[in-house]
Amino acid sequence: MAAAALVIAVLCSFSLVSSAPESALVTHLPGFNGTFPSKHYAGYVTVDEKNGRNLFYYFVFSEGNPEEDPVVLWLNGGPGCSSFDGFVYEHGPFNFEAGNRPGSLPQLHLNPYSWSKVSSMIYLDSPAGVGLSYSHNPDDYTTGDLKTASDTHTFLLKWFELYPEFLGNPFFISGESFAGVYVPTLASEIAKGIQADLKPALNFKGYIVGNGVTDTVFDGDALVPFAHGMGLISDDLYQKVNSACQGSYWNPVNETCMTLLDKVDKEVEDLNIYDILEPCYHRPEIKQVVPNARRLPESFKNLGHTHRPLPVRKRMFGRSWPLRAPVRDGRVPTWPELEHTEVPCTSDEVSSAWLNNELVRNAIHAQPENVVGAWELCSGNINYYHDAGSMIKYHRNLTLQGYRALIFSGDHDMCVPFTGTQAWTRSMGYEVADEWRPWIFDGQVAGYTQGYDHNLTFLTIKGAGHTVPEYKPREALAFYSRWLNAVPI
Question: What's the CA gap between 374 and 266, in Å, rounded?
Fold first, then answer.
């Protein structure tokens, strides 16, 4: 009898594993010669039949135990940036090596620090109009926080209907940058759906936010203390601006405050805002920004150095992120719009060359360019409104319901500085459960952490910038794995 039960269990397990849509199976990827370490699926989920609003996903089975390992949704920010940013440059299953000439097909190599080592990963392009996601109704490209969260929740409900074998797995959502808004608003929709007994029932356990936009006041007031603490502005200027602005930097209270903030802006404008330790290439012809670099000690030469074997992203920077909040009447400028004003542009030739290749589009079941357009890392197609307000109320509501939250910051990011994130997590008013301490990786201090009641954890990653897994892939996989497994970081 026991043997028969075992056979039935095995057959049921096989049936579940086989229930994923075979039409979405990715059997090969141009640029990669080898065997996938786990199954890959990709395609579209229609979240609005009437308008033909379709969201594109790429799903990577865990390389460990996909039947039991967590399923994690990953969202990049912007608003307007594709989650292939995370797939290509951060924690996807491959490292991408640039082709022999600009625009040529990159070569793919297995990434030893992929987050799919310990979890199954869903990379989602959201909202419609971003990456490979699209709508037949262009009115859908006017959107905001609440509509994006609702659409992504619809996507998840439909996605789990396609992949019901994963319904029992622990489910988490994660993201970085403006996904600091996407993640908690989506988590709130999921929590409300669970309370309303929506089917399929998601086994939602918690969420992760990295260097995330959260609150206008906390984020807006973060840069000046960060710049002073990092030695980027003088004590004298800091004291003057602090006095004149009365501690309020995001919303200048008088003309003197504005003048001094302009001076702070001038002092930091030539820095790489995503990682102040990295070089800042203001013009393509500048190859070396540190004179007499050969005289520097090796420890100085390696500041801001990424451990990725193929650091293919090339950033060129103009002025840094403006100290005053860019939101006007609730509308958030997209990255391409900001590139032409005060925010750095990114040149992502490798990802563009790969995702705009017809063979790649066919392999991942994506619509061709004549339907969805050319893939861009950050799209200017959407008209986005920040209509959910501060995320702090979302975090409080979710953590008080028992959902786990990991809030992490690369400590050398000047785009969303850790100073603001540290301040808002502290402002929640929760009791400290794990007092501020270093966390260790490979025998070295990798950053610092503080844990609070209600399963809220704040974490820094030493020497990392805005996109932590890109700068510190080994450390990122370490804290990610520990947190998913609910062991001390």
Answer: 36
